[in-house]
From TrEMBL:
Signal peptide start-end: 1-30
Coarse class of the protein's main subcellular location: membrane
Membrane topology: Single-pass membrane protein
Compartmental location: Membrane
Protein name as it appears in the record: RING-type E3 ubiquitin transferase
Keyword line: Membrane, Metal-binding, Signal, Transferase, Transmembrane, Transmembrane helix, Ubl conjugation pathway, Zinc, Zinc-finger
InterPro entries: ATL20-22-like, WAK_GUB, Znf_RING, Znf_RING/FYVE/PHD
Pathway: Protein modification; protein ubiquitination
Domain of life: Eukaryota
Transmembrane parts of this sequence: 220-248
SMART domains linked to this entry: RING
GO cellular component terms, semicolon-separated: membrane
EC annotation from Swiss-Prot or TrEMBL: 2.3.2.27
């Protein structure tokens, strides 16, 4: 198994390769900037302008409509020509979506006078919302828009016709205005309130200059990226193979050690068992006594002489036969043998 040090080394290699690829990508594909502590990068088609500087110097391939300012608080600011400034929460360059929120924390008030005219941005979708004013004590069961309300009137908004009619039937409730406001999903503000951000999309602007400027770097970037990826895969593969080999070697060593210990235990146990003398009760239980008859013939796999002392059996001599293998011996010879051994003198099988 891979120990914790090998695992940490594997993570360090991955992190280093990630930083290397990111650095090469930023170096080759163009200038990438950030504003303050924002988690998103500012790159084409957007251009970052420090607060207090003029915007009349256009960068090649950039549009003045995609200018972001970085204010003194380290926040990215987008100005919409007829709607004012919004703070930028995030930019999704792949989906071409920008997420905005109101600096004054009153998005519904901004949406009541919202326009995207003369800007490159479009709403993901539009939906009709009716803004209603009710007395503070009115039982409407709807979320009040606190930034538009005061001590004498509570302002709320809904996109549901049935709910609008229900609220307007209450005493003192009047419709302020019905507007089409931008939403990212149906009934976005109906269930989540107006704490959600404003999501806008943009179409890819004309970027001939940008493409020409980058066209030369594309082959080089592709070659370098391919080399980095190939080397990364090779390094990770080699590291993984080495780690697996080390783990397998350790496993074999442990199995070998366990096998040696088990073999030694078995040898010791057999040696102890064979060295232990047998008492008379065990000898009697594993053998039977016989007496040589007049014919001096012994049944079973036996001859007419004792395999231990090699003397022939005589009439009326006392013999002893082993139950397991049926070999016969002089009783006195076998008794002495079994005092030091537990196997049959002839076949070497366990006697008792």
């Amino acid at each position: 198994m891979i120990d914790i040090r090998e695992h940490m080394g594997f993570l360090k290699v991955k992190f280093f390769l990630f930083l290397l690829i990111s650095a090469i990508n930023r170096k080759i594909s163009g200038q990438t900037l950030t504003c303050g502590y924002n988690t998103f990068f500012i790159q084409y088609p957007f251009r970052l302008l420090q607060e207090g500087k003029s915007s009349h110097h256009r960068h090649r391939g950039h549009s003045d409509q995609f200018i972001l300012k970085c204010n003194s608080q380290g926040l990215a600011v987008l100005n919409l020509p007829f709607s004012g400034d919004f703070y930028v929460r995030n930019i999704d360059y792949f989906r071409q979506k920008i997420q905005l929120y109101d600096p004054g924390h009153c998005l519904p008030g901004r949406l009541m006078n919202f326009s995207l005219s003369f800007s490159p941005f479009v709403a993901v979708a539009y939906q009709n919302y009716t803004f209603i004013s009710c007395p503070p004590e009115s039982p409407h069961n709807s979320t009040v828009i606190s930034c538009l309300s005061n001590s004498t009137a509570s302002v709320l908004a809904t996109s549901l016709m049935s709910k609008t009619e229900e609220i307007l039937e209450l005493k003192g409730c009047n419709a302020i205005v019905t507007l089409q406001i931008p939403v990212s999903s149906p009934n976005q503000y109906e269930y989540n309130g107006f704490d959600d951000d404003l999501l806008l999309a943009w179409d890819a602007p004309s970027c001939n200059g940008e493409r020409k400027g980058r066209s030369r770097s594309k082959p080089l970037f592709s070659i370098i990226l391919l080399c980095v990826i190939t080397i990364s895969i090779a390094l990770l593969g080699a590291f993984f193979c080495i780690a697996c080999c080390l783990g397998f070697t350790r496993l074999l060593l442990k199995i070998n050690e366990a096998g040696v210990q088990g073999s030694n235990s078995f040898i010791i146990a057999v040696w102890d068992m064979s060295a232990a003398p047998l008492d008379e009760s065990r000898i009697s239980s594993g053998t039977e006594e016989l007496t040589v008859g007049g014919s001096q013939c012994i049944s079973g796999p036996n001859g007419d002489s004792c395999p231990i002392c090699l003397e022939e059996y005589k009439e009326s001599e006392r013999l002893r036969r082993i139950h397991n293998c049926h070999h016969c011996f002089h009783a006195c010879c076998l008794d002495k043998w079994l005092q030091t051994e537990i196997t049959c003198p002839v076949c070497r099988n366990i006697a008792v």
